Amino acid sequence: MQQVLVLNASYEPLNVTTVRRAHVLVFKGKAEVIEELEEPLRSATDTYPRPHVIRLVQYVRVPRTLQRKISRRALFARDGWRCAYCGETGGRLTLDHVVPRSRGGESVWENVVTSCAPCNMRKGNRLPEEVSMSLRAKPRPPAPVLFIHLATPRIPNRWQPYLRGLTEASTATA
Ligand SMILES: [Zn+2]
Fold this sequence. Notes:
two-stranded antiparallel ribbon, alpha+beta, binds zinc ion, 25% strand, DNA Binding (I), subunit A, single chain
């Protein structure tokens, strides 16, 4: 299925959507087509550009609290498929709550990290400092571009200019 890259008014990548949804945004005047594909969209009476990259007319603020849901796949990708404690990349990876849930730790991006199974076992229901473990980096919510990469394993060439330089920042967090 064809996907469309959605940019904020600031040209910052926001997400990926379907051609149909993108077209509706453009049709309603909420977005403009930045890149289009050759074959136009046809209705009974009209033809429209087939959107490939669109840009929202009005800037939307993405509140931190509305950041994307945590999934293992997104978490591991954020952390570069590497244990946040020891840096191990092989073996089984797990999701670890830095402050354990049993001690009031929340399931938020700032409190979850990728952990190898041995580190997770060793830490158990304790805080990292209680077992002389430390995080290699402070966990943060991933940038939207991470989800664009996860949703679109093969990024179209014409999206590249809009995503360039953002990949590093999003995966170098931890
Ligand atoms: Zn580890």
